[in-house]
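Bench log, entry 3. Co-assembly request; chain sequences pasted below exactly as received.
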Amino acid sequence: MPQITMRDALNQALHQEMERDERVIVLGEDVSGGAGGTSGQREASGGIFGVTKGLLPRFGEGRVLDTPISESAIVGAAAGAALAGLRPVAEIMFADFVGVCMDQIYNQIAKFRYMFGGKSTCPVVIRMAMGAGMNMGPQHSQTIYSLLTAVPGLKIVVPSNAYDAKGLLIQAIRDDDPVIFFEHKALYPRKGEVPENPYTVPFGEADLVREGEHVTVVALARMVPFAERAIDTLAKEGITCDLIDPRTTSPLDEDTIVESVEGTGRLVVVDESPPRCGMASDIAAIVAQKAFRSLKRPIIQVTAPHTPIPFAPVLERLYVPGPPRIEAAIRQALEDE
Amino acid sequence: MAASISAITMPKWGIEMTEGTVTGWRIGEGQRIERGAEILDVETEKIVNAVEAPASGTLRRILAGDGETRAVGSLIGVIAEEHASDADIARFIESFVAAVVSFEPDADMALAAPPAGDAPAAPPVGDVPAAEPAAADAADEARVSPIARRVAERLGVDLSKVTGTGRNGRISKEDVETFAARAGAAEHAASPTATAAAEITAPAITEDAASGGAVRRIRMSARRGTIARRLLESKQSIPHFRLEMDVDFGPLLQHRRVLSQDAGERVTVNDLLLRATALTLVRHPMVNAQLQGDEILQFENADIAIAVAAEAGLVTPILRRANLKSAAAIAKESRDLIDRARRGGLLREEISGGSFTVSNLGMHGVTRFDAIINAPQVAILAVGAATERPVVRAGALAVADVVTLTLSADHRVVDGAVGAAFLDELRGLLEKPGTL
Amino acid sequence: MTFSVNLSSERLLRAYRQMRLIREFEERLHVEIATGEIPGFTHLYAGQEAVAVGVCEQLTDSDYIVSTHRGHGHCIAKGCDVVGMMKEIYGRRDGLCRGKGGSMHIADMTKGMLGANAIVGGGPPIAVGAAIACKLRGNRFVSVAFGGDGSANQGTVFEAMNMAVVLRVPAIFILENNGYSEHTGAAYAVGSGDLAGRARGFGMPAECVDGADFHAVYDAMGRAAARAKNGEGPSTIEAKITRYYGHFEGDPQNYRAKDEVAKLRVSMDCLRRFRARTEADRSVAQAALDAIDREAVALIDAAVREAKAAAPPVEADLYSDVYIQY
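Structure output for the full assembly:
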């Protein structure tokens, strides 16, 4: 089976779905690039991260729309096109820009179906590049998915690898509910085995990335490969862990997490987001409520600090939880209190 | 023709207004007004404004005078056509229901009862077909939680036989464990020893520094886990109390010898004990019962569960309608049940339910013990070994074979006197076993 | 495209009926809201009827509109069920949105009414999206964004206008300049004082019309729709009009001169204007208009009675339709 990057896996998903269903359209800033330029070259970028490469030449300007820098209009247009029967995949270049178009996301697309009495369908996908670790500074590095997970009416997808990314994006496009799709930019080059044919990965089903007895570790996005490294190191000492990758935060596969903790009694949650009101505290609360009697010691949350993301590389390295911090947390989890 | 009567109510001006004060009626009772005319002034916290007449007619009643404060929506005046009678007006006022404008959570919000045969929401409009089903293997993947799959492998459970009660019908760990516990006593294709071995994970052996020797770590099997959980729950939640009674087993032992010869069937003391217990139970319905929630289920027949020590743990196959069976029949059936319990060949219906349990540790020499009630039953009888003991009969010392029976009962359902009466009658039957 | 001069008397009567229905609907709501029986916020359209009807009479069920918080007029003009609307405003289970949206969120996808939007300026981007869909299907249909002088200052409207021009989609922006955005006059809040001019600045044709004149609005809309269907892209129509009631019901309108509304009810009333015009050019019988007036009152009366008697939602309705499938 071919090994391709997460970026290329996402690109494949878009190509295959646009081929399969002519209602799928793509819109965003520079999804193709080069419009109105003087080089005469259309498709100058294929998306700033290359995820939408090759779509315009193949499907044309009617279905691949380069837009001005207008996030509200982009998301709003995606919403309106979806209400009118298309299946738009809109891109917000950096998840940080969600502030600019927040109304269209949490007041409009999240609420249409409910407030119109179940009479409208809005099958929109909003893709966003998120995450830190590449020195892009405070306003181009946030994770954001915790904020949107809290909004009823949205489905939130956070893949950690190429295989899941392709399957989840195809699922998102085929899903009739609004989906916000978070792609960690540092994971774009991460390679994995990806089947060439289209396939789906269901929402609300976690992946059990590693299996073990001693500690349950839950991680998202880039924290998954970091947790894998920490766990593989500890395995050499005979310490084994269940590593759970929820893949979607809404719906969240609570059962798998609870079932694992019922077995191990020890939980470490790893999230690149800041500590307040984030996925780490959300999952910790769920486990504390549903598996309280199974816990042998308090839950450990490994998160970024309650600060904006610093620019200087040495500071950013302190900000983002890495394998050593995760390893230390797992060791701590083994200590009884 | 019914006269038209209209209400003048304290108006709602703005979403926050809850009450208003009448500052001045501009017309008096009996005066004629046109719809839309300003007829009174009202003051609120924020504004002063005029109220317009909602209809044309005569102002028949003023119910809130100048300076009076009323809640929004309440009736402050009545307009009616000339020929409306005073009685009509009075009726109107009496039957008037003010609108609910309070934001308080306990305000009387009218929630309709769910209509019968509720139609599902209308399908979405437009050319949006249902999302395509996922690829076949992905769908299979999705039907079982990864932990459940692991548990199933360990317990040798065939997932295709398990019903899922998790999210969207997914099979959860609990579903697998429940299935395994029920089927654990039933016969599988795998040999009993293999099943038993599969239930115990390969123990981890580590060095224990404190004890200076090897420590075997054995993960509790699902079956053991279920037993553990049920016993803990029973012990923690049921108010057990105990009644002891010593029974002279001499007559019973004698009776047993006679019966065995006659019946040609090997009848044990335990079989006779079961029969005696069954006959006594149906005469004490409060002891022959289950407690479910706050309902006591009294059984017509005695379905007695027999505690059997199988290799994988305690099993309690049930001897149904024991009160209707002869000693010989009980002997045959209980021998079969105990046998299959030890081998792991019981059917699910043979281990579910029961109105009473008998646990006999006499064969191991235990003289007395108290058993934990097998919830949701309300009592259990613990039977000790028959030992030769000194007894006093008619003032003289003698030696008799005595068995100590201990009844553990749920004090929520079984009172002391009830339990005592049961034991007393049981002893009577055992000591005069002619009818057994 | 049809010009209003060429409209049959049937079509004219229909237009009048729509305007009268809206007027009666809103006037009746004004009375009913004061009783306290209608929960929440309501924003009445009375006075602006000719704009909604002038625009929507050029549209079919397959064209799209996105409306505002002051959306009852657009809703009725686009053909939504009046009784269903009334029930929705009363929060009843069989309201147009099952009681889940209320006055500010009335929608009917089957009529191409993509929702009243409670967020000022929230609608135009959505309308552009629907226009993208229209373009992909060959420009046979158009997408209309209603907005006010208030929304015209919202960044989302600028984005939507520019996006519509750049993507060259069949979107039509109707800016109903009723002189007030909430409690502040347009004279203060619209810096340039010229909404049509702003739209022109984004690169699209824009007209300014007398919003009380059904015929003028109808014709301006006809021109804009023709351009859109011809692939020429978006247009804007600024309609100068007034609203008789406050921003929301309960607003005492302290920002308006005491007799302003009374005067405008005479000088700027679109129903009076329509009567005067059709009497002068004899395009419809005045008796027919009288009949419509009576019919409208009766219809709205029946709608209110039905709404008051209708059942409220049940507990299960709280949880339904958050997702199609979770």
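DSSP finds twelve helices and 14 strands in chain A. Chain A touches chain B through 34 residues (CB under 8 Å).
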